[in-house]
């Protein structure tokens, strides 16, 4: 099959490319970074360097493809995040309609249907294609971005930069605390990007007649249980996850100088996680759990933690 993978060489896209190339597919990787070209080629894939804002580029790239994996990278500089999501999703839809691509797998998130405003998943509703929406839980790899703060170099008001439909948190390494407007004993589904890549690779080869939604997770636990696993791995077993109010969380994100719309979106998604609605949806949709446990990821995290 000829398969297009967007997302450059990110946490999901790179292992996905490796899986698909190993299976013998012809894989094209979309990236905006010219410097990634050689690495993409070394993986056995074809680089397509261009912008997601360029519909002609997307149309040319998708032409003749059997399947497309589409994702929208989160921007922390766009003043109007909803408009940004809308524009990219519509660009995808326009290019996919023009090329008559028959199989589309789109990366969303497990609280996508619980936030106000336009649901970008609907951009693909009118296409004459087989569409699957992937809704993964909170990414393990997002803990990497808390590394300096866990070491005690951070402060309240800096936040852990995470995928827009996954785990979000404030953290202060000085006191060994994770903070967010969800946390404590809230139960969360965490997921390894490797398990997401496995799920996407599986879906790309299927052709369901109707649009489907697939929830993906690796392990379910409370926020404090997750904090203890990460903390124990790095020698801070007392690490806790403290629950903040929505107002406190919003103030912290604004202190971090996030665009207002993005800050409000993050708070709204975390509030949905705290309410338990995201977890309820997850269990009501026959989720397929992956193989990678948080304790396994924690060892990988600890290696990087002590190396830096």
UniProtKB/TrEMBL annotation:
Residue ranges of domain NAD(P)-binding in the record: 7-113
Domain of life: Bacteria
Entry-linked InterPro entries: Ergot_Alk_Oxidoreductase (IPR051604), NAD(P)-bd_dom (IPR016040), NAD(P)-bd_dom_sf (IPR036291)
Protein name per UniProt: NAD(P)H-binding protein
Biological classification of the source: Bacteria, Pseudomonadati, Bacteroidota, Sphingobacteriia, Sphingobacteriales
